[in-house]
Amino acid sequence: MPVGTLFRRGQSWQVFALEHGRARLRAVEVVRRSGGVAAIAAGLEPGMSVVVFPPGGLSDGAATRTR
Fold it and tell me: Does the pLDDT of residue 65 top 90, yes or no?
């Protein structure tokens, strides 16, 4: 997964996953980062779409659209 999807909230790594047209905040377990890629061990299902470089004002449950 691109590291541009990850951000910190407290001590945990978070991402915004796209679910049914909404951005949903998810805690993830990062097991390794190298360059621009991170390996995620838990918190997302295979094939889930995520927000890359989420804007600061994005909140859990916000309506989203894909490009």
Answer: no
